[in-house]
Specification:
The structure is a homotetramer. Chain A is of the alpha+beta class. Chain A is built from 7 helices and 18 strands. In chain A, the strands form 6 sheets. A 5-stranded antiparallel beta sheet of chain A has the order 1-2-3-7-4, with helices on one face. Chain A has a 5-stranded antiparallel beta sheet with strand order 9-8-10-16-11.
Chain lengths: ~350, ~350, ~350, ~350
């Protein structure tokens, strides 16, 4: 209703600016008696944490999450879970120089136009720092979904460079700093990104998130289709410009015969012979893998001078210094995973409510 | 909350199955004292109506909409607007043959799995027939937005065939049966689609919707970003598999310098020198055109035999007869427009609420 | 969000004015595979229907409800249930004389002040006619709750005249035109009400609604307490000015020892020795009867002249003719029952979602 | 949706247990550029703070509120306001003795029945401690409403002892420890309450809250009537058992002529000659004072032994020690004010959204 809450029954509300004292949130609707500890959240947060390789921002945030409520003797109680993450390495003075400028590709102009005021320090509320809380919420969502549901993400394109899907290896995603499932591609990307960074540039990417083990039947047509809610979840992540499921945009060029997933029986159960649907038919999960691809634009903050204007209407040049990711898509991987987890947990509860 | 309602302040609830007595809905939150007549809705419905050329389904539905409430002496009263559209040309007996089969690419399997029951006649609730009510609601949304905001859609790709953007002519969209903005492409598509239909096949497409005159400041970060709500709106339309704004998926391959929209002053106001953002920055409208592209899969119902199973677990072949669009993307154009109108009207009211 | 929708998971949206072509609504979130027919709804509507005795309005509405969707072969499908009730005996010309007047105790003044326009015919949207749809929705809610939950209402006070609770007999409520559980009181009330009607006056009343068999555990603290949602539901009914649960306002004068419900074991289960809580503790149902009392003001429309003003600011006298209930509390009984059923059905689904 | 959020556009979410590290919340939807400081919230919190006289609990909580986000350079930014209040004087060991007992009149039984787990320390989430966050949110709501709207509360009945309305003096409410508007009554209450405390008993009360200067037109019929939302707000406060507006339950005994508020012109504007409506007609504010009365039950925790059972099904006696208010209605006054402020702020924004 008011912009900072996501979900219907598994419900995440976040608050906080990049350079305020803390960010945090409330996760409500969590079923009771689930084992949950701060360590479960921290594990996911550490995957998103900045400063872990030369390829991400050098801001040093420990991103230590504190659970303030909703847990008793190691179990969820069914009451809201309050989350708090202190901001420890905010360097607001880095931003004094740009306080009156609209950084191209940023929300500076639109926040000021909308609200008539903006917290320019580190982008304020528009900063991707806010996504840390989403990752913590996603960790709780995974607990709700249980071990049978597995959600994994990978970076499948960095700038113009894709991967060889024949070499896809999920284990590889944990071994390189890009969540790249193709070891050879990851090596090439490292060189590419070094060049990008040296040339004061930035680059976009495509994240692919896959949820396995999702029960058939999740999704609430007609408007709250599972894929519609996933699309919203993904595009709500900063810098995302597009989303597709299954065959996605490629489906437009196909015939029905090519794109339909034929069915056969296997072990006494109906199975699909392909997954162009990406695990969703008619807005309801099929039981196949949910496959989502997310297009993330290149980091807007670059050191290369760009033309812009300031709040007084003067035309100026801007070169954004500060500590930025050259490719925000990398750290977007755990965020996309978290949002998919939140959507699935929400629809799991919704399905249980209506259909038992 | 329950799947069949869309929007927060401009709020659309729909009901109805393809072969029930009627479809309909309720539009709530409409500002009072707007001039509104059934003719305003009918005009939009007629654009989506089937059977207007050889290229769409031959089901003959007049799609006559009736306003049951919320209007007094030609003006909206601020109370909910009840809408009713009778189903007049439903031929349920066409569907008897498939009542126990799962049509590939359809929601038959998932509806049955979710609900344990399904109205197989014409796809029941999963039928795109439901979108007629959306179009009526979209017509009301346009009234809320006023004349300054203009929302237009076009089909920019049919199957593998795109358009030449240099030939883009909005007026042309009304002259051919495809909403194609490129007259030459439209001619080629007509031949292509005749072939598709003769070969008992179907084809997908890409719809582009553009909103001009949108005021700066619409959108409610962080989760209810304008683009996130647009993404949800589009993917909630049957057969949609992907959505992108501005440079969309192409942004992934770009550098920040290429993708950022530089700013300059013009006539005393800040302007953007390009629109890779697609009219949204940080989830808030920039005042530029909102540009959305929507990938629509090929019609699932085809007369070519496909492999499937039935409810008893037998492996069978199915060839879907009945009256189907060979390219549902065509009639998807006014539906995409309507959904964009609904999102914008909703956020216009939300912006007015919070920021005055 | 927009005023005309009630509930979270069992969700009722209504539309329609007193003198428009029809009133109706949509009930969404209904579990699938419940047996449901128009007759189930009609039975409840007939209990609220006007013109059944000399003590209620003589407007002759058959209140015939039509189900437009959501049912297939006699069972709910889980998709939204569209409801339609035609307005057949609207005499709008009765209202021409008052179109520019603000009837005291009515919403004429506030609707015009809020919306800048009002449908004066029969009170438009503010008419209690709208509650017919609630009663239909309540009948669906009862199906969701199942036979184990029983919801009954009674009029326990008419004007200054109460009942003798020692004579309480639920069966009696169906035998007199007042839903009075005390046969002797009912006789006295009949005389009283004849006098009221003859003197061109009106009278208020208190409705008591009791739900038995409600499972323990319903309610979502802290804001969506079961009693809070019941309070909202009741006060949302036209003419309601107060609501209380259990000992209600009397609790204010008591000590904790008097008001607490002590507990003991019975048949191996904890039981309460009294029910001052009215079946709700901490916002969650205890398993005891839910007991709600609802104060309903006297009918505002009376034939006795009253001082008022008109839209042009002239001071005038008004005597409301037309066909009105001398005591709206009577027909309020099935409406209060319906709203309680809706709240309980909603919380039953919510409880199932979170706690399984 | 999930119980711990209140409001539609002015939206309050709370979290926290009585004996956890902290309680807190998020207030979202606040208009930008309002001056707001922690001191504005603290002022209201101090009014509710325990331990300020011998008549309330001796728990010593400073209730120091911290604003974590949403404010920049002393002004609201339109982004969510995160609130944190540390729990400093929780003595959990006080509660060890009752961890397996169901305290009569408390939520112990229902929380355990609902969730299968409960945080017994200080009542956990069911503790009235949670209302501190509501008071902080109410202070923000007052800022949204502006100086023209004034919300004041008073205790008008303590146990069986009422007030003399002829002696009503708002200033007096700040001079005695009961928010009593009648100085003479306050003196009598002090003696009464001393007796109650000494006899290890407790007592209920009735709070009256009045909002002046409320603009005409607030409220969203039919379900989100202003009075319906007020009723929900009040009954969502712990220990509340009833609510009424204007003439309330007394209206039931009246005739229409007695209860209707006649209208006349004054200074060129329509005025009401009485306020039996309590400032709401048809669910919409009339511009008169909103007058709400709230029945609060006696404190459930008393030192007098009561019969109860424990989680193992044994019948036992319980005498609740710990630090409790003998009359929770006293500290309920600022909480009722806060909830009324939240409802009005919410509907002010809703009105602005729909009607401009």
């Amino acid at each position: 209703m008011t912009g900072n809450t996501f979900g219907t029954l598994f419900r995440v509300t976040t608050f906080g600016e990049s350079h305020g004292p803390a960010i945090g949130g409330v996760v409500d609707g969590v079923p009771p008696r689930l084992p949950l500890a701060e360590a479960d959240l921290q594990r996911e947060l550490d995957r998103r944490r900045p400063g872990q390789s030369r390829h991400t921002t050098q801001r040093r945030e420990p991103d230590r999450v504190q659970i303030l409520s909703g847990i008793f003797e190691g179990l969820t109680t069914g009451t809201p879970i309050g989350l708090l993450i202190a901001n420890e390495d905010a360097r607001s003075k880095d931003y004094g120089a740009i306080k009156d400028l609209f950084r191209p590709g940023h929300a500076d102009f639109t926040y000021l136009a909308k609200y008539g005021i903006r917290d320019y320090r580190g982008g304020g509320r528009s900063s991707a720092r806010e996504t840390a809380v989403r990752v913590a919420a996603g960790a709780i969502a995974r607990m709700v979904l249980g071990d049978a549901v597995r959600i994994r993400g990978a970076l499948v394109q960095m700038g113009p460079h894709g991967i060889d899907r024949a070499r896809w290896d999920w284990d590889e995603t944990a071994r390189n700093p890009f969540w790249c499932p193709d070891a050879a591609a990851a090596e090439a990307w490292a060189d590419h990104l070094d060049g990008v960074r040296k040339s004061a540039s930035s680059v976009g990417g495509i994240v692919e998130v896959v949820a396995s083990g999702v029960p058939v039947g999740l999704g609430a047509p007609v408007f709250d289709r599972l894929d519609a809610d996933i699309a919203k979840a993904m595009v709500s992540i900063p810098a995302v410009k597009g989303v597709e499921l299954g065959s996605g945009f490629a489906a437009a060029a196909r015939s029905g015969l090519e794109n339909n997933d034929a069915m056969r029986m296997k072990d006494g159960r109906p199975v699909f012979l392909s997954n162009n649907a990406g695990g969703v038919l008619g807005g309801i999960s099929t039981g196949q893998d949910i496959v989502v691809r997310v297009a993330i634009k290149p980091t807007s903050s670059i050191a290369t001078p760009q033309r812009t204007v300031n709040v007084d209407g003067a035309e100026v040049e801007i070169a954004t210094t500060g500590r930025h990711d050259p490719c925000v898509a990398i750290r977007g991987v755990p965020v996309c995973e978290a949002m998919l987890a939140c959507v699935l947990a929400d629809h799991l509860l919704r399905q249980r409510a209506q259909c038992g």
